[in-house]
Amino acid sequence: MFCLTLPSVFLGFGLRKYPMRVTFPIHKRVIDAHPTAGCPLPGIFKTPWETKSEKERNQKDRPWGEFKTKEDWEFARFLMKSGLSQERIDELLQLEVTRARTQPSFWNKYEFFKKIDTLPRGPRFSCETVTITGDVLDERGMRMKEEVDLWLRDPIECIEDLLGKVTLRDCLVYQPTRMYTGEDRQKRVYSEMWTGDWWWNVQLSTFGGDKTAYPVYLTLGNIPKQIRREPSQRATILLGYLPVPWLACCSSTTQQLKGYEVFHTCMARLLWPMVSAGNRGVTLLCNDGRKRRVYPLLAAYCADFPEQCVVACVPENRCPKGKIGRDQRGGLDACEGRDPKATLEALQRLSECNAGPERRLELENLKSAGIRAVIQPFWRDLPHCNIFTALMPDILHQLHKGVFHAHLVNWCDKLMSAGELDRRFMSMANHPDLRHFTKGITTVKQWTGKEQRAMECVFVGAVAEGTNDSRVVAAARSLLDFIYLAQLPCHTSDTLAQLKDSLEEFHRNKSVFLENGVRSDFNIPKLHSLVHYSKSITGYGAADGYNTEYPERFHIEYAKLGYRASNKRDYERQMVTWLERQEAVDRFHSYIGWSLGAHSQVSSAIQTEHDENAEQLDDGARGAHQATSYTSELSAPCDGDENPEEPPDLDAANATLNYKQTSFRVAKNPPLVNTSILTIHRHFGIPDLVSSVNSYITQLAICQPQVHPQPISPFEMFNVYKCASLIVPPPAIGLPFWEDRIRATPAKVAGVLPSLGSRSFFDTVLVKTPPRNPKPRRSTGLLNKPSDASSTPINGEAPLSGSGAVLENKEAEKNAVNLSDSVDPTTTGDATTQAPSSGIVDQSHPYRKRL
């Protein structure tokens, strides 16, 4: 089995109707595994890597093979991954410094590539010619023909390669499961493909065991989605390049249909080995050393809407998954799923008809049924394949670019006065995790999913009170609720019910766009596609695992970089050679690391999105962010923990992060050193700094009698940090951590604070002070008192002498927005409840900022 990847009033700060995270305790999950699926065959075997490593040990060989030393191999790997052209590589190798100092085992590009070509390879590409016969006649009265090249790999070899990856040994899942939130088994959980109904219902046990390029990718549903997304893991493999013919041999009336036929012909050739393997099974060696009887099935096909229509043999004015009429797609009417068998029978009847009235009648029947006249779809012989249910939700094109940007934004803009929506985006308050559209949204030249996600974060706030009809805000909020809920990496029966409620609420309020002349109907394919999300999630797992945004990332390496490395003539052949060499280098690098004991396992899920989010900020906001290099767990003042003498580096700190406690980071070196109390009073807005710190020190001394901190005087000097970052654990293991930055930076003051930017940034935070409700605070300073001893950053709530503290400005409290009546601290999940009682905690949802 594999995936082929091809009337409520809106609250002022965008608080949503539903919590944006699944809050059930992870340790209470109950998992029922399929009793027989994925069972291995008798015997334990060595993987190819284990065999090779044992042979090298017996012969006392080193793992870098043809390369004389490890350094020699690392130099070769650098040349392959650097993007240098062959000419530049040759020039580098001819330099005297390279020959005399580096002394590689290869002296020119020919010897270099000869060594690279000796590395172990994965599945090899082959080229086949596809002949297209058109309906245009040549000068001899013969039908013109066109030949195109189809580059392909054997899908069974690709599957075997993925199953055998030792680096994914702890990741592969061979059994479908049913996951529940508790012992009562009343609420299902849907996340990965193996938690959905499709894999379970297919009953694997009945099988006896367990200058264009059109790239087609293949991956396994057995691999966690977090791994499939990472190009460096090589868990998604390029299956082939489909040709894109000119079709000059076809008339204008037949070109489109012929193009569809060529697509299906090439796809059928790509996948034909799966027909027999899916029916009879094939024995493959897995990376755990066990052999299994594998039945590769086409489970999920990820594509945008036009390609979905091509795959399903459906015109673009119809639903590719259901039979609903073209004029009935604007509501919540039930959309009965298409039947592959009935579709193939209708196409078979057409193929048996000769030209004449009978054929015209069959064509009319196909048109009324919403079927294109592609006689032989590629999926017709694939076992256990329902191509219509296999078409996955497309979050990027259907939600971000489609329903939101192409439709909702346009509708709301038309309901406002000219330029009003732009002005509202420009006037939005600045926040470190939100993009500030300083010039509005109409000046954005290139739209990607990143810009649209940034708009979604503040869109409802921009629309609020922009019109006189509250239904506009209700409709916008409900659609955005749907978008955020649809992106959850883990669903339960409750979140699916909320997904349905959000869609129903939009349809209850959508009439406002009809009454104001913005729309005449809602027969929009991408809007209609939302009705299928819930069923796809229950069948195949959460929709974020099938987002077409991730295959588009693979295009960079598998298509664009390969083309750039070619001489632009006969480029497909050169692209294939380049890709095979790149894969060989990566494979050999992974093997060396594994052989030497530094096994390349799954990339750590402890990731932050600092770099990605920073790109979305304007220049002034970027100036407020500093490189961080220290991480500490938040702890209560009475824990008695002492700060380490020296702060560890960032990598070591990241390695200590866990999924139960909120931690934080600050810069290794404070940007503003030896800042006087007077400067902090005037420019940071903290008139009561001395009294606040001394009050805190007094409380600290009561909690920790063994600590004897000294009170500060008005003549002390402080080191000041511009920002601190909270590292909030995700709701589930395997998901990336979320970084929430808090800035406290005034504007530049000549002669006093010359290194700051032209804008000030004082972010509002929520301080948890049980048992009272959380109160908003304006962050005003991140301080560190210099001392002769090596000072360290703050340790949660308990900074000692020489450590930093986040101080609040009580004068600024009145300027903060009061959210205490609308925020429930219990909705923030484990990260909030595990933070200390007096710590700084975040009360917004991490998914909303991360996705």
Describe the structure.
The chain is globular. 40% of the residues are buried. Strand 3 and strand 4 (143-152) form a beta hairpin. It contains 31 helices and 23 strands. Among the domains are: 395-537, no CATH class; 610-850, no CATH class. With 851 residues, it is α+β, with helices and mostly antiparallel strands. A six-stranded mixed beta sheet has the order 3-4-8-7-1-11, sandwiched between helices. Strands 15, 16, 20, 21, 22 and 23 form a six-stranded antiparallel beta sheet that branches. Strands 13-14-17-18-19 form a five-stranded antiparallel beta sheet.
Strand order of the largest sheet: 3-4-8-7-1-11
Tell me the structural class. Answer: alpha+beta
Query: What is the rounded Rg?
Result: 30 Å
Give the helix tally: 31
Q: Strand fraction band?
A: 5-15%
Query: What is the count of β-strands?
Result: 23
Gist of the model:
The protein is built from 31 helices and 23 strands. The protein has 851 residues and is α+β, with helices and mostly antiparallel strands.
Topology:
Elements: E1 2-4, E2 30-33, H1 48-58, H2 70-81, H3 86-94, H4 96-102, H5 109-116, E3 126-137, E4 143-152, H6 155-163, E5 177-180, E6 188-190, H7 197-201, E7 214-219, H8 225-228, E8 236-242, H9 255-271, H10 273-280, E9 282-285, E10 291-294, E11 298-301, H11 305-312, H12 340-351, H13 357-369, H14 387-390, H15 395-415, H16 420-426, H17 449-463, H18 470-486, E12 491-492, H19 493-509, H20 511-515, H21 525-528, H22 533-540, H23 549-565, H24 571-595, H25 610-614, H26 619-622, E13 628-633, H27 650-655, E14 663-667, E15 672-676, H28 677-684, H29 689-703, E16 717-721, E17 723-728, E18 738-745, E19 761-762, E20 764-767, E21 775-784, E22 804-808, H30 830-833, E23 840-841, H31 846-850
Parallel strand pairs: 1-11
Antiparallel strand pairs: 1-7, 2-5, 3-4, 4-8, 5-6, 6-12, 7-8, 9-10, 13-14, 14-17, 15-16, 16-21, 17-18, 18-19, 20-21, 20-23, 21-22
Biased composition (Polar residues): 817-841
Biased composition (Acidic residues): 639-648
Region (Disordered): 616-648, 767-851
